[in-house]
Model the fold of this input.
Amino acid sequence: MILKQSPSIISYLVIIIATGLLIIQSQQSVTPANYDHRISYGDNILIRSQQDENKQQGTRAIAQNNYSEAVEHLESAWKQSHDPETLIYLNNARIGEEQALEVAVTIPIDGEGDTLFFGMEMLRGYAQAQQKINQAGGINGTPLKLIIVNDGDHPGDATIIAKRLAKRDNLVAVTGHWSSSTSLGVVPIYDQQQLPFVDPVSTNSAIARMSDYVFRTVPNNAIVAETMANYAQNTLQIKNLAIFYDSESAYSLSLREQFQSAIAARDGRIIDEFDLTASGFVAQDRLNQIKEQNGEGIVLIPSTTSIDRALQVVNANNQQFPLL
Done:
């Protein structure tokens, strides 16, 4: 794909989309048969928990290219629920068949853990950005249309979806995905197609170095680790720490590595490390080990799927050791 928009337009788009964003894995495989249910510009509802009769009628009208009727129903639905998916579809319906800049927003709707919550937070930021851009006359006079994509935060599914998105001629950029594992898998696809990828969430330090077409709007793990290490040294005044991490999460592994380096540079020491996904994990046993090794603090780096075990550590710790 040859990038049709000028660098200035893309840069402006990157900055505006990032504004207002709220920092926020599906085991089902994507096939041609069910892919259509994972992407919507307003012709179908992806957030099944957020639907009413007006929203349903609005999406049916969009599917039939009846945009004036769609606007009427979606305005009513928006007044009732203030659901960000509805607002995005309403803004798209207002554009109708007018020429627009299309951006795909990828969110984890039906993954494990609390990914729906995170996906909704991302949608709120995207909806607000689109609303402000279009109310101000668009980008160089061209309105912004958002295509919502449910990748389930599953790397395999996201890879298939990314290949589909890269073939859309009118698409000027993609923003998302949620986890670092998913983002790491799709960057090579966007890079090959020269499709700009705006990453407002994933913090793995390697992502931005993979392609000149990646624009990260969130601090990477190196910066996060430096901040944590400074806090441990200067505020908590502790040096001997234990790390609880998730061996199945690229995000967790990356932050773990960065923190190891940051604390070592400050003469700190990692006395032990514990995998939150290990079988037979017992939080109290791990805390006893930390105490026996004269540990002074705990670093918790869970993923969305290992938060429960991280909370077990918090509860068993009962404020015995300071937590990072």
In short: The beta strands are 39-40, 101-107, 144-150, 171-175, 197-199, 214-216, 240-245, 269-275, 297-301. Residues 133 and 139 are 7 Å apart (CA to CA). Residues 1-33 have pLDDT under 50 and may be disordered. The longest strand covers residues 101-107.
